[in-house]
Write a structure and sequence with these properties.
Helix 3 runs antiparallel to helix 4, helix 5 packs antiparallel against helix 6 and helix 9 crosses helix 10. The two termini are about 15 Å apart. A hairpin with a 5-residue loop joins strand 1 and strand 2. The strands form three sheets. The protein has an eight-stranded antiparallel sheet. Strands 4-9 form a two-stranded antiparallel sheet. A two-stranded antiparallel sheet has the order 6-7. The longest helix has 17 residues. By secondary structure, the chain is α+β, with helices and mostly antiparallel strands. It folds into two domains: about 180 residues, Jelly Rolls (Sandwich); about 100 residues, Arc Repressor Mutant, subunit A (Orthogonal Bundle). It is built from eleven helices and twelve strands. It is globular and about 50 Å long.
Length: about 300
C-alpha cells in the first residue's frame, strides 16, 4: 500500500483569465490528505482510497462529475447534500456538480468505484445508481459495519486494510457487460468519437446510446465529455498549473472558450472561479511512502 500524506495551507488568490495566480493571501487552513491503493485483486472494481481531514472556513464544496462512482464513509459528522445527510454514501455517475455543504470540518474516506465494481460488490448496474446519492444500506452494503470499524481504526493504513477486507468479501461473480460495451468504454476514455466507436463495433449509434444509458446511466456522448472534463481537471490540479489555453489544447477542446463553456456545464462555475475556491495552494507537502499516518 502506498500512502501520500500532505499538509496544505490554503491560499486565496486572484486568478486571471489565463489561469495565472497573483498575490496569494495565506489563510490558516489545515488539509490532511492520504491516498491509498486497494489490493491488486480489487483494482478492476475499486481504483483508489482517499483519506481526508480538513479544517477550513464553513462553505460549499462541489463534487465534480467523473468516470467513477463515489463511496464515502465519514469518520466524523456527515456528508450534507440537498437530498439529505449521510454517514455512508454511494453516489452514481452524474453530469453536474453535487453540492456539499460543510461546517468547516470534514473527516472521512472516499473510495473511487468503477462501474464494474458496482455490479461485483453491490449487485447493481451503475446505470441504476446514476444521478442518485444513497446510504450504503440501501444497496445492501454493510454500511454500519464499515462505519464502526473505520471510526475505531487507529491509522489510515488500518482503515484502508478494513476496506480491502470488506470489499474482498463482497466480490461476487456476475454476468459481465457485452465485450462491445467494455471496448467502447476504453475507446471513449482515449477520446474516440461516438460515431467512430459505433462503426467499429458494428452497432448503430442509437443502439450504442441505448446500451450505454442502461449500463451506465449516461449516454456515450455525455460520458465522453465527462472523461475529457476529468482529464482537464487532472491537469489543473497538477504541480505545474497550466494556462487554460494549454488545457484546452491538450484535452481536445476547440479553443479556450469551448473549454470554459464545457467546464461551466459540468462544474457549475468557471475554471478560474473553481480554482480560486477549491484548489489548495501547496506550501509544505511531504510525500511519505508507506508511512502509516494516524488521524
Amino acid at each position: 500500500m502506498t500512502l501520500l500524506d500532505c499538509i496544505y495551507d490554503k491560499v486565496f488568490s486572484r486568478i486571471d483569465s489565463c489561469g495565472r495566480v497573483f498575490g496569494p493571501t495565506l489563510v490558516a487552513v489545515d488539509v490532511h490528505y492520504v491516498a491509498g491503493s486497494p489490493r491488486p485483486s480489487l483494482l478492476p472494481f475499486v481504483t483508489r482510497y482517499s483519506g481526508y481531514r480538513m479544517r477550513t472556513e464553513p462553505g460549499v464544496h462541489r463534487g465534480l462529475p467523473s468516470r467513477s462512482l463515489t463511496l464515502v464513509v465519514t469518520l466524523d459528522g456527515t456528508v450534507d447534500l440537498p437530498d439529505g445527510s449521510f454517514s455512508t454514501l454511494i453516489s452514481g455517475l452524474h453530469s453536474y456538480p453535487v453540492i456539499i455543504t460543510h461546517s468547516g470540518f470534514q473527516h472521512g474516506v472516499q473510495i473511487d468505484l468503477t462501474p464494474l465494481g458496482a455490479r461485483v460488490l453491490f449487485g447493481v448496474a451503475a446505470g441504476e445508481l446514476a444521478f442518485t446519492s444513497l446510504d450504503w444500506d440501501v444497496v445492501g452494503a454493510p454500511g454500519a459495519e464499515v462505519l464502526g470499524r473505520l471510526r475505531s481504526a487507529p491509522t489510515w493504513a488500518a482503515r484502508f486494510g478494513v476496506l480491502d477486507e470488506v470489499f474482498s468479501r463482497l466480490v461476487t461473480p456476475v454476468r459481465l457487460p457485452a465485450p462491445e460495451v467494455r471496448w467502447a468504454w476504453e475507446r471513449l476514455a482515449l477520446g474516440a468519437s461516438v460515431s467512430a466507436i459505433a462503426l467499429d463495433v458494428g452497432w448503430s449509434r442509437q443502439h450504442l446510446t441505448s446500451v450505454f444509458r442502461r449500463e451506465f446511466g449516461l449516454t456515450p456522448k455525455v460520458l465522453g465529455r465527462v472523461m475529457r472534463f476529468e482529464r482537464a481537471g487532472m491537469m489543473l490540479r497538477g504541480a505545474r498549473r497550466p494556462s487554460l489555453a494549454e488545457v484546452a489544447a491538450a484535452c481536445g477542446y476547440t479553443d479556450q472558450a469551448h473549454f470554459t463553456r464545457e467546464w461551466g456545464a459540468f462544474a457549475g462555475t468557471s475554471p478560474t472561479t473553481w480554482m480560486a475556491e477549491e484548489l489548495p495552494f501547496v506550501q509544505d507537502a511531504a510525500a511519505l511512502e508507506g508511512a502509516p499516518s494516524s488521524a
